[in-house]
Amino acid sequence: MTIVEQQLLAIIKATLWGTKPEASLFHGADWNAIDEIAKLQTVRGLLIDGISLLPSKFMPNEELVMDFVGQQRRIEVQNIAHREAIIKIDQALQNKGITVAFMKGQMTALRYPSPLHRQPGDIDFVVSKEKFSDTLDILDTIGKVDRSIIHEHHGMAWVDGITVEPHYKVHNYQRPSTDKAMQEMFMDIYPDQLAKADIDGHQVHIFPPTFESVFLISHMVNHVYEEGLGLRQVIDYATFLNKCADCINWVKHDDYLNCMRMERAFRIFSCICVDYLGLSRPSQIKPFSNDEKYWAMKMINDILAVGNFGRGKYVFHHNGWKDAFRNYRWVINRCINLRFVCPSEAKWWIVSKFTRFFWKQKQAKLN
């Protein structure tokens, strides 16, 4: 791990838990380099909160401090717009009798010390498959829907200029039995066992903690093999465990993980949260073995090098067969090198990535 990566993690830990970072680590710090890796990991909004806990002589110069403050302020404005769009979407769908469960994004941000400082992405929510077409019709009344883009588990829309992904499946998993298990688990909790969260005085439906924990783990597994996992998603899970560990039904959680074949992935990501992000290990999670610590070290090194959606190493392109082959080769290498995270999904990614390419070609012709 490079000194810049160590510095970024120290700042993140300070931001998350309010503890002062080790000042000596920042003697002669290259703040532009720290900012670049924070950009790669989509965590720039968290920088100034941690930096402000350093002694003044170790802080960046006033100009850079103002830059970091400005970055954070822009992220706050984006988050406010996302929250307004979520309320708008929820009200429009609820008025038509459609129950929607929001996930990721602003829902995970609620557990951050300062929710508006988490860098936003898209707005994701899920409805029943039977109501998906109606959902698109309603979104068309408050925004714009691109009906030519229907992925394996979601569509595409824009509300007030913000990208929205309405899901008809929680997610798409590569091993068929794993995919089936997740859909069955979702139907067990949707809609009657959904939890609620407050967004600026408006109550929205979210996943209950036991289900959300397994969903967040599975979402990280997907990122590992597809394009690359960023630090932001692991921070999401660390803040989730910090706030929600006592609300999880751990017996059911074990059953869910077993159905998803993701017990090891849960242990690895939890270990990263504790050993590298400073989370106090929840009492319900037993101490980590030497193997788990080794796998966590390999995974955090990949996260820091590759970044969110692989931006640090490889950017996917989709112009013809050559790009398709390069993309496939990237995924295959990740499945081989990071097989230890979730062997089941790693093996099936090799098959599904290949077959899905031809499925997409067929869908494009049909559209």
Describe the protein:
With 367 residues, this protein is α/β, with parallel strands linked by helices. It is 57% helix and 10% strand. The protein contains 14 helices and 7 strands. The chain has a 7-stranded mixed β-sheet with strand order 3-4-5-2-1-7-6. β4 and β5 form a beta hairpin. α8 (209-226) packs antiparallel against α9 (231-244). The radius of gyration is 20 Å and the shape is globular. The mean pLDDT is 92.
Strands, helices and their partners?
Blueprint: H1 3-17, H2 31-40, H3 47-51, H4 62-95, E1 101-103, H5 105-109, E2 123-126, H6 132-142, E3 144-150, E4 155-159, E5 162-167, H7 176-189, E6 195-199, E7 202-206, H8 209-226, H9 231-244, H10 250-260, H11 263-275, H12 290-306, H13 321-337, H14 343-366
Parallel strand pairs: 1-7, 2-5
Antiparallel strand pairs: 1-2, 3-4, 4-5, 6-7
Helix pairs in contact: 1-2, 4-6, 8-9, 8-10, 9-11, 11-12, 13-14
Task: Using brief descriptors, characterize the structure shown.
367 residues; seven-stranded mixed sheet; 14 helices; globular
Summarize the structure.
By secondary structure, this protein is α/β, with parallel strands linked by helices. 57% of the residues lie in helices and 10% in strands. A hairpin with a 2-residue loop joins strand 6 (195-199) and strand 7 (202-206).
